[in-house]
Design brief:
The structure holds two protein chains of two kinds.
Chain A lengths: L9 E6 L6 H14 L4 E5 L4 H13 L4 H25 L3 E5 L2 H10 L4 H7 L8 E6 L2 H11 L18 H22 L3 E4 L4 H16 L10 H10 L11
Parallel strand pairs in A: 1-3, 1-4, 2-3, 4-5
Chain B lengths: L21 E6 L6 H14 L4 E5 L4 H13 L4 H25 L3 E5 L2 H10 L4 H7 L8 E6 L2 H9 L19 H22 L3 E4 L4 H15 L5 H6 L1
Parallel strand pairs in B: 1-3, 1-4, 2-3, 4-5
The chains are: A alpha/beta, B alpha/beta.
């Protein structure tokens, strides 16, 4: 359902449930590609400034239905797609995306929207050159999330679906559905599964190997300014990039 | 009472409650007198004893802030804008139109997704993509298409509220001035509406006639739809 990549760029995306370690891995990949002097851009799910005010307000008042949630997430994606991801791919940049359309196909269908409908909504997007699915058992995901922050968020836990009274129980059922949807997509979209329980370094080695193969014999957009690259790299030390949030 | 019928999958997670209400849509380009007629129809239907709920585009609280923001800055690309409208439409459908239909209201909708489709398609959005997106939409019981010629629209608007930036499609640079842009934009919009009229079975009403005449015509069409199976019609007998 996604379009073939008709651009000069390369699109690399990571997917997986919360706590699967995908963000850690794509951050490491980002730094590695930058250190090689590549032109790389990073885009994060749900990070469009324009859509943010709407999403924030609706999350607060819990005003979403599965359909409006789904359409607004796609609006966020479309804003990033039309204003940065697609033009940069055209220019020959490597675009890294922390979550892609597959997140919507998994979550929105887990919320009960029609699978064909949500796939068609994202049909303006292209099939990534590399799509990695980080798979971890549910217990590990819950352990990682509860260790990292105090509380699982309302929509993240699927509390809007009335699956359970307790957030952890609801999260478990909801994420279980999401895992099932991801599994269905492995063949449908040719996702490469990575075992998210392996040591971080081992996973990164695998990731870099896969990306190296995908970039073999490909040049892409030259990065003319090394000083810019260096200052970007130093600004990125210590975690999150601003790439997707500009 | 009837099962709800959607253009596509609708809202699969919602229970398919029977709907005893009627959905009546008024469509047409800007300045054809839709809002005047909606007011008249509402008054008439209420006088007849029907509970009426009226709705229009961009009235959902969910996307109000975002859409206002977007209109101020003009920074939205076509797909993003069309999705914003779709979110708004879905919100009104689920939270307003469907509950009112279940409660037996006559829902008068001043425009429906056909208008959004028309404005998106002019801006280069793929019509097939739009059709699938609006597979969530409930099929109306009646779609009344108020149709006027472009010269007639110009006269109405100039003597009315004036030509405006959006109704002239100035954002897509069809011409360097408001008047020429308006003519080109509304001509194209009318062409698209005419093809939607065939596809979705609009009932076309000539909006060039005097307000009273148009109103009488609309009333007659609506009479056909509010038939015996309507609980409120039973009561009125």
């Amino acid at each position: 359902m996604l379009k073939p990549n008709d651009t000069q760029g390369k699109l690399i995306i990571v997917e997986g449930i919360d706590g699967s370690g995908k963000s850690t891995q794509i951050n490491l990949l980002y730094k590695w590609l930058q250190a090689q002097g590549r032109s790389v851009y990073f885009s994060e799910w749900n990070s469009s400034v324009l859509v943010k005010s709407t999403t924030k307000a609706a999350k607060k008042t819990r005003a979403f239905t599965p359909t409006t949630f789904s359409i607004l997430q796609c609006t966020d994606f479309a804003d990033r797609w039309e204003n940065s991801i697609y033009p940069l791919l055209k220019a020959g940049v490597i675009v890294l995306a922390d979550r892609y359309a597959f997140t919507a196909f998994a979550r929105d269908v887990a919320r009960g929207v029609d699978p064909a409908w949500v796939r068609s909504m994202y049909s303006f997007a292209i099939q990534p050159d590399v799509a990695l699915l980080f798979r971890v058992p549910m217990d590990i995901s819950i352990q990682r999330i509860t260790a990292a922050r105090a509380k699982i968020k309302y929509y993240e836990a699927g509390m809007d679906l009335n699956l359970a009274k307790n957030r952890i129980d609801s999260f478990r059922i909801f994420q279980g559905r999401i895992l099932d949807e991801y599994d269905k997509m492995v063949n449908e979209f040719g996702l490469t599964v990575i075992d998210g329980t392996l040591p971080v370094k081992t996973q990164q080695k695998l990731v870099r190997e896969i990306v190296k193969n995908a970039l073999q014999g490909w040049e892409g957009l030259l990065n003319p300014d090394h000083s810019v690259r260096k200052s970007q790299a130093s600004a990125l030390k210590g975690g999150k990039h601003e790439g997707g949030k500009q | 009472m009837s099962e709800p019928v959607f253009y596509g999958a609708g809202f699969p997670y919602r229970k398919k409650h029977k709907m005893s209400g009627k959905l009546i849509v008024l469509e047409g380009t800007d300045g054809v007198g839709r809002s005047t007629q909606t007011k008249l129809l509402r008054r008439w239907l209420e006088a007849e004893g029907y509970a009426v709920s009226d709705t229009g585009l961009r009235r959902s609280e969910l996307t109000q802030a975002g859409l206002n923001e977007a209109k101020k800055g003009h920074t939205l690309s076509p797909i993003t804008m069309s999705l914003f409208y779709a979110a708004d439409f879905a919100d009104r459908l689920e939270n307003q139109i469907i509950p009112a239909m279940q409660a037996g209201f006559v829902v008068l909708s001043d425009r429906y997704f056909y208008s959004i489709m028309a404005r998106d398609c002019i801006r280069g959005v793929d019509p097939e993509w739009e059709r699938k997106l609006y597979g969530i939409a409930l099929k109306p019981d009646l779609i009344l298409y108020l149709k006027a010629d472009v010269p007639d629209l110009v006269a109405r608007l100039i003597h009315g509220r004036g030509l405006n930036y959006w109704e002239a499609g100035m954002d897509i640079h069809l011409a360097d001035n408001l008047y020429d842009s308006f003519i080109k934009y509304q001509t194209e919009l009318t062409r698209i509406f005419d093809s939607l009229a065939d596809e979705y079975n609009f009932v076309t009403v000539d909006a060039a006639h005097p307000i009273e005449e148009v109103f009488e015509e609309l009333k007659e069409e609506i009479h056909h739809v509010l038939d015996e199976d309507h609980p409120l019609v039973e009561k009125l007998k």
